[in-house]
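pls read this stuff:
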Amino acid sequence: MDAATMNISEEVRTLGARIEAFVRDKIVPYERDPRRDHHGAPTDELVAELKALGRTEGLLTPHVKADGSHRTQVETAYLLIRSGLSPLGPYGCNTSAPDEGNMYLLGHVGSDAIKERFLRPLLAGEARSAFLMTEPADWQGAGSDPSMMKTTCRRAEDGSGDWIVDGRKTFITGFAGAKVGIVMAKAEEGACMFLVDLPDPAIRIDEVPNTIDSSMPGGHATLTIDGLRVPASQMLGEAGEGFKYAQIRLSPARLSHCMRWLGACIRAHEIATDYACRRLAFGKQLIEHEGVGFMLAENRIDLKQAELMIYWCAQVLDTGDLGTVESSMAKVAVSEALMRIADRCVQVMGGIGVTERTIVEQVFREIRAFRIYDGPTEVHKWSLAKKIRREWREAQEA
């Protein structure tokens, strides 16, 4: 399977070519821009400038059509891989996490009022968003297991119909500076989701730690939610359906991460290849030394396998299946393959590979974090193992 054999229209192919040229020509020069926050992520000022470039080029939010409908996952993959050729590319194209996943969720579940108030600014690149689900493990909260969620929501006692939310959240990507929040909490009916305007005085930032990754504005905040009041009209869907909505978001968003970071590793491999072909060592080009040449060959294999896994999972999602099993498989296979690629790129480049002279060092750090967020590799393997056992039992009983 190759992108050329997929059901991708000429319109999307042309759009993908424009995105690739835009990222390489217009966005890459910004990789040395000094406008960064305390942990190295681009500031909102820089993000706004990058989005303005994308808007001028007509390339903002390319994964959503003019009528507001989302492109297929296969088409999205074709575009997001190219937007990821620079860590800054997703901001210039408005395809970054967590916004892209939140757009998908609101586009599929949100009411007309919610779409107008909360989704429209995201699609236009006028606001950033945050998805408040994960909870601190040291609080005996959800961590990677949302069924353990401790954040609660209850109806206000004044008869207004409003909801009151209390709890804690952690590793909330992009919260600092976000204008739209999706808050997940547990009621008597089950899990619920709410849309809120940010900032809100009832949501306090306790900490924004420095982390190994540095590509996401706002960092990964730990929050305390104390008496957050939300009108009933800002509940997403129905009470008790939050876990179902989470799956609607998480499976495609998990795959979107794979798409963007594949683009980054393609670029890192290009940089490492260029270095190995130019660098002379022990009387010949570095790539002519078997140890180096083999690493680049292994990169080429892993890149292709990652691409195939992404498109295969995208096809499953396009059938209307939630694709939880397939997206778990893709998350494991792609994140681990990309980690090998990034590591080899650093190794091929030697001392240069661990400096800020190229993006290779940053891509290595970002991919290392990618193996954890949106579900660590081990969580997805555990989930797959449970399915294997369940299938075995069903076969025995048949």
Summary: The beta strands are 129-132, 152-155, 163-173, 180-187, 190-197, 203-207, 220-230, 280-281, 284-285. DSSP finds eleven helices and nine strands in the chain. The chain has three domains: 3-123, 129-238, 243-393. The first helix runs from residue 10 to 27.
